[in-house]
Amino acid sequence: MDKKFLIAGTCFGLLGVIIGAFATHGLQPLLTDASIKSFETAVKYQMYHSLLLLLLGSTNFLAPKLRDVIFYLFVFGIIFFSGSIYLLATNNLTDLDFKSIALVTPFGGSLLIIGWILILVSVFKLKKE
Q: Where are the domains of the chain?
């Protein structure tokens, strides 16, 4: 087991539930339907990757150095992808203009994709038992 994966997965999962509930109960009257859908997408991806972190923390099929790389890809991918969507979806609620960070979203998504590709490559390299 890898404790940092388990802690990160648990923290991101907890935050995903809190942020999702806050959006549903507190932000829904203030946001457009498109913004709510974007917010929901960010929560879904955060939760999917939280569960993946928990799963990866409970297994040992990845090489230690690769585990570290994948860990940081997913942690920063979640922060950049979901975090930027949260800010962009709530842009009209503040005086700050978060539109300038719009390119962070695809960057975060790219980090998540790279993490998944590295896992796939690792699975193909597994030896048959």
A: 3-125
